[in-house]
Amino acid sequence: MSRKCSTFQEGDLSKKLNPEKLTVEFSTGVTITEPVIGRKYTLTHSDITADLFLTIGLQFAFEKITSMRDEVLAEWKMANGFPFLYVYVYVDGAFDPAVTAVRDAIFRRELPLALEAIRYGDRKFFAAHPALDSAPIWIHFDSTNPMYNKFENWGTPGYYK
């Protein structure tokens, strides 16, 4: 895996979340404030209604992932004693390699909105753990093409509130 890193530039948040378009579901084993490490987010959406669906659990909600593979997966992890939000997007999908560039551009355009949806949808968790608003967000753009397979810093959850 290529470990090319870059930093998210503040001011890149162009779309704003419409909370009425966000549905949040808590799976068994999580509460609105616990746990921290191992807390997983599965964010999917409807292309027809533009509704967003956030599932918060101990496991990813793979049953909600479609063949388009345009979901955003995120998880709280620890490195060197510090928490960080690890975000995963599958850039390739089951598509022709020529489509990878388009999918990469779409993910980059939509990720600020996705991160805002996660931050807003789990706002009581962040209120209970305010230090997490300063934790780094690391995004893995997963691709078999080294040009698109990247690991990037996209700021902190606090930027997306």
TrEMBL record:
Keyword terms of this UniProt record: Transit peptide
Record InterPro entries: Staygreen
Pfam families from the UniProt entry: Staygreen
Record carries keyword Transit peptide: yes
Residues of the Staygreen protein domain: 16-157
Protein name: Staygreen protein domain-containing protein
Source species: Jeotgalibacillus salarius
